[in-house]
Structure formats: C-alpha cells, structure tokens
Amino acid sequence: MKRSNFVNRVMTPEVAAIALTGLMALMAQPAKAGTLGEDLASGAGVGLGTGGILGDDVGVDDAVNGAAAGAACLVANEEFHEDGERNLVEDLAIGAVAAGGVGLITNDDSFLTNAAQGAAACGVIHVVD
Question: Strand, helix or coil at 55?
C-alpha cells in the first residue's frame, strides 16, 4: 500500500525520535520535573558536543540522541534506586543503549557512534548530579 504524501513529509525520523524522547519524559515522575528538564538539556548539549568531536555534522539528531539518553538515565535511576543515587556503570550502559536505539531512527551513523554519544551524555549527567 502506498503511503500518503502527508505521512512522507510529516513522519521524518527526527519527529519519530522526538516523540520517543517525549514518551520517555512522560514516564518520569512529575515530582522530578526540574531534574528531568536538567537531564534533557544536559543530554542534548552533550549530544551536540560529541557530534562535533566525533566529526559528525552537528544537528538536531545529535541533540535528540543526547536528550533521549538523559531521559532514559533519569527514568532508569528512578526505577532502580529508591534513594536516587546514580550508578556510573549503569548510567553509561543505559545512555549507550538509549542513544544507540534512537540513533537508528534519527540518522544513519553507526550504532557505536550513537552509543558513544549516549554514554557521554549520561556520564556528564552522572558527574553533574
């Protein structure tokens, strides 16, 4: 079946990834809204920075990958730890998996490049938090 022109123009990979990041953000507890915003912003910033370091054309996909990693770290840490203490190894792994998966949607970079962005984002969030 042929997809409509509307779907081809509106459902870009970036829109799908932003929707996925938004879904992760909605899963976070409302009481942690300040922390969620901080983790999303930090992740997006680190994603842009690592995109430049890794020689990528820095763009929205890098920010989305980092933000997704930040949201995933927050959600996972709320689920794994009652006292809110973060674990560096878990943060790096969660960030790598989240950004690697979102990277499959947002761009055609290698999974490892996207995973490195996510691990870096969650590593920075871990240190800052």
Answer: coil
Q: How far apart are CA 108 and CA 47, in angstroms?
A: 15
- Entry pTM: 0.70
65 closest CA partner among 90, 41, 47: 47
Residue 53: its H or E element: helix 33-53
Distance of CA 105 to the CA centre of its chain: 12
**CA distances, 60 to each of 57, 65, 80 (Å):** 10, 9, 30
The burial class, CB within 10 Å (0-12 / 13-18 / 19+), for 66 is buried
Task: Tokens for 77, please give them.
Answer: 């840490």
Could you give the angle at the alpha carbon of 95 between the alpha carbons of 36 and 27, nearest 5°?
A: 40
Local structure of residue 54 (DSSP, 8 states):
T
| pLDDT band (50, 70, 90) for residue 31 | very low
